Every structure is written in structure tokens, then in C-alpha cells.
Amino acid sequence: MRQATVYIDQQALQYNLNRVKQLAPTAKIVSMVKANAYGHGVKDCLAALKDSDAFGVACLEEALEIRELGYEQPITLIEGIFSDDEMQIIIDKKIECVVHHQQQLDWLRAHKDAYIAQGLKVWVKLNSGMNRLGFKVPEIIDVINALKAEGFTCVLAMHFANADAENHPLNDQQREQFLHVKEACAPIMGSCCNSAAIFKWPELNFDFVRPGIMLYGATPFADRSVEALDLKPVMTFTAEVIALNTIQAGESVGYGSTFVAEQEMNLAIVSIGYGDGYPRAFPKQNYVSIHGQKTRVIGRVAMDMIAIDITGIHAPIGTEVELWGKDRLVDDVAEANGTIGYELLCRMSARPVRKLA
Ligand SMILES: Cc1ncc(COP(=O)(O)O)c(C=O)c1O
């Protein structure tokens, strides 16, 4: 059987959840499990994240999957509902919504009594400069005060555009607007911290923190490694050596013949490619790990195969090669590919076999 395997380390996930608890001891934790738990597989991840206070997802379908798996914690739809007919379903299934535009408010008000009777909170989204979703200041103050007067329990919600950046001027603007609205609408619960903000601004943890990438053991920062953040990688992505070749100086390998050997070298062909979610671009040299030994990827990544340099390395057919995981961090693979760990994790294909570590 072709071996392209994704191992999920549930203990690492629990470790990372505990890191959130250490960093935000008084806040409730809304574990972000959208996009199939950042590509890790929501079922296995929920089992490890079962002590979370709540879950965050991007759409109703993702929320219903959590309910079908039997979890009863609150769930927040971070983009709210997309059409009126979703409102009755979320009320029945006890799913909470963000509201970020007038039409969503109308839909909510049309179901006011049932929504409130289920004990559901409304997450009112502030647009403080990211300019994706939300009401701006001062409109949001009227929106929240009206909802409160109607009997809704509200959470002021915001998302930082540059929480990963050290000194971005928008951070101050967003923080100030959030604090201003929170005061103008007091008392109100608040939530504005994703992973990077949890690390950087403990004073902004408030009632709910919303960790995503840190749970999965990848870094939200360009310049702080998971080791420095004391997080453990959850996903290990591996494949096997399926063929061995020796090529001479002047010979090339793979599509486009982009790599030409300067001297004799030993290659291993590994059963992994972009059809599995392994990226193809690699503007920079990429590496894999064989039992902790780093070696380079040679030539182009194909749909099902890559070539790696095993000159001087013992790697017979069947040897396991780590594409990313604990030895070769997904953050480093992402960097070589001109992207971020988030993207590589989320775009895993369905083809690799999934196993628990
Ligand atoms: C509204 C919201 N909150 C929290 C998160 C989690 O962010 P991160 O994965 O950087 O922790 C996201 C992710 O995109 C989000 O959209």
C-alpha cells in the first residue's frame, strides 16, 4: 500500500491546550476547529480538545459536525449565518452566531425569543480597521446597546489584523477602539485574542480567547519558533522511499529537468506529491528529514512523487521520510514555500492515510 501518512498526536494537542490555559488562566477557551481543525481532522482533534469551553467554526456545516460527534459545548459561527433559514437550525442545535451586518441583525431579531430562550449569546463584531467584517465605531455602540435592551446577552468580538507583527500602528488603533466600545457598552463580555494575541497581550484576554494555530503546534509568528513558544507540533506528515537511483554529473531528475547533478549522487524517490497536499512552489531550497537527518528535495515536486538526495545516508526502500512534523517543522517548510504553516496544514488533501500517533 502506498504510504503517505498523517499522524495526529493528541497528547501534543492537549499540551498546547494547556499552554493556552497557562497563558490565559481566567478566560474561557474557544478552540478554533474550523477547516477540519486546520486540516488535522476534526474528529480526532475534538477528542483531544474536549476540555475546551467552546469551539469556533466558520459555518453551520462545521458546527453540525461537532454536534453530530456528541459535543455539547457552545459553538460560535465566526462569520455568522449566511441565510435566514440557518437561524432556526442554529437555535435548535444551540449554536451561537456572530453578527456583522444589518441583515444578520434582522434575521436574529426575527427569532429573538427562541434565541434568548436557548441561552445563546450574540457575538457582535467590531470592525476596528481590518475591514473585513463588522460594525464600525460609533454604530456598533448603538447596535450593542439596542440588543442588550431587547434582552440579548452580547459578546464584543474583534480580530486583530497584525497581532503577529511587533509594532504595527493598526494594533494600537484596534486595541483602543475595542476598549472604547467595551467601556461604552459596559457591562459586556469581550473576545479579541487569537494565538498571537494570547502570547502578546495577556491584558486583552477578557472573557473568551480564540486560539487556533497554537493548538496545532505551529507558530503564528514569522520570527518566533514553536520551540520558543513551548508548543508541540501535532501533525507529522510522512511518506516512504519507493525507489533508489544513482545519477551521474550532468544527469537531471524529474519534470522540467530543473535539477542537474554536478557530481554522482544517490537519490531516493518518495511517495508524496502535491496530490497529497505537499506544496510544489518552493522558491527556496526545501528539506525533509530521515530519522532526524535533514536532506534536500531535488527537482520539481510532482503529483505523487518527489526525489531527495540520500548521498551518504542509509535509506533503503521502505524508509520513512518526514515531510513535516517534529524534526522538520511545518513552519520551516512553509517558509521555504513562501507561505505560512496555516496554509500547508489546511490544504492537506484527503489522500494521505490518517492515524493517531
Ligand atoms: C475570528 C477568528 N478568531 C480566531 C482565529 C484563530 O486565529 P489563530 O489561528 O491565528 O490563532 C481566527 C482564525 O482565522 C479567526 O478568524
Automatic annotation (TrEMBL):
The modification N6-(pyridoxal phosphate)lysine is found at K34. InterPro entries: Ala_racemase (IPR000821), Ala_racemase/Decarboxylase_C (IPR009006), Ala_racemase_C (IPR011079), Ala_racemase_N (IPR001608), PLP-binding_barrel (IPR029066). Its cofactor is pyridoxal 5'-phosphate. Its EC number is 5.1.1.1. The active site is at K34, Y255. Substrate binds at R132, M303. GO terms for molecular function: alanine racemase activity; pyridoxal phosphate binding. GO terms for biological process: D-alanine biosynthetic process. Keywords: Isomerase, Pyridoxal phosphate. This is Alanine racemase.
